[in-house]
Each structure stands twice: as structure tokens, then as C-alpha cells.
Design a protein that fits this description.
175 residues; five-stranded mixed sheet; 6 helices; 5 strands; globular
């Protein structure tokens, strides 16, 4: 019986963490306080959507491709009100960080949006992120409206500009 209660409590804790992952306003402060990577973005991080959050690592080939699509979207006037944030997770996969690799990644991808260092707390708060790239889109209301997770051996390896435009347009009028 004790074991059953312990399992039930673990399930409730997990579901609570996933439920919290649904609202940008609850996650905003954690991301705003994170250490920046590369060139720091001076603009304040807005509380309201639309917001695109992507999880990446410099060693991840699909992440490189995805950054091209995110840069294209960032340059589009129709989506000027959309905030893009990239959170670096799993950079030390294999046991060590490689700052030179990150520098090469930044030089190659030239991100035009905010990049921050991720933490285990962020990984959990955003719904147990365990694969990259993972992209979460928060709509005008701040609620999660779309999620892409790269699955091993999948034909689709990253979110595209077209995917993101479709999701953002379906969310309703721009603010």
C-alpha cells in the first residue's frame, strides 16, 4: 500500500510539473534571470506572447538548421512582435563543455535572438525536456500552443519557419 501511495504521489508531482510548463508567464522569470550566451540582447524579455522557446546545443546538427529558420522568422516584419529565446541544454553531453565549439556555432548561425544557459530546473519547468531540438510556442495569451520534439531517426528533425508561421497565424491577430 505504501508503495502504491508513493507511486501516486510521484505521478501527481510529474503531472504538476508538466501542467506548469503550459504558461509562459510562469516561466518568464526563470528565463529572464538566466546567464546570457554570446551577444546579450538589450531588449527586456516580455511577459506576454507570442514567444518561441527552443532548446539547443552547439553540437546538434538539427539545431543549426533550426537556427536558420528562427533567424528568418526574426527578420520578418509580420512577426516583429514575436520573441524568440534559445535555451542551451546538454552542452556538456559526454562529460565536458567545449567553449570553442560554442563560438563556432554562434559564428556559423549568427542568432538574432536571445540565447541563455539552461539548467536542470529549466529543463524540468518546461516539461521534462530530454531531446533537442525541442521548440515550444506560447501564443498571445501566454499559453503553450505548439510543441515540436525531435525524435530519434525521425524524418523531420527540426521546426521550420513555415511550421512556426502557421502556428503563430492560427493563434489569432497580432498584438
Amino acid at each position: 500500500m505504501t508503495r502504491l501511495i508513493a507511486i501516486a504521489l510521484m505521478c501527481i508531482a510529474f503531472l504538476t510539473s508538466v501542467a506548469r510548463a503550459g504558461d509562459w508567464r510562469d516561466l518568464h522569470a526563470m528565463v529572464a534571470a538566466a546567464a546570457p550566451i554570446g551577444v546579450e540582447v538589450e531588449a527586456p524579455l516580455p511577459m506576454e506572447g507570442p514567444v518561441i522557446v527552443t532548446f539547443f546545443a552547439s553540437w546538434c546538427p538539427p539545431c543549426t538548421d533550426e537556427f536558420g529558420h528562427l533567424n528568418d522568422l526574426a527578420d520578418t516584419d509580420a512577426f516583429a512582435d514575436t520573441t524568440i529565446v534559445a535555451i542551451n541544454l546538454f552542452e556538456d553531453f559526454g562529460g565536458k563543455k567545449n567553449p570553442a565549439r560554442m563560438e563556432r556555432f554562434l559564428k556559423r548561425t549568427k542568432p538574432q535572438f536571445r540565447l541563455v544557459e539552461g539548467t536542470d530546473a529549466m529543463r524540468t519547468a518546461f516539461g521534462q525536456i530530454d531531446r533537442i531540438p525541442t521548440v515550444i510556442v506560447y501564443g498571445n495569451s501566454g499559453e503553450e500552443i505548439w510543441r515540436f520534439v525531435h525524435e530519434r531517426n525521425a524524418a523531420k528533425t527540426h521546426a521550420t519557419r513555415q511550421d512556426l508561421e502557421r502556428v503563430l497565424m492560427a493563434d489569432g491577430p497580432r498584438s
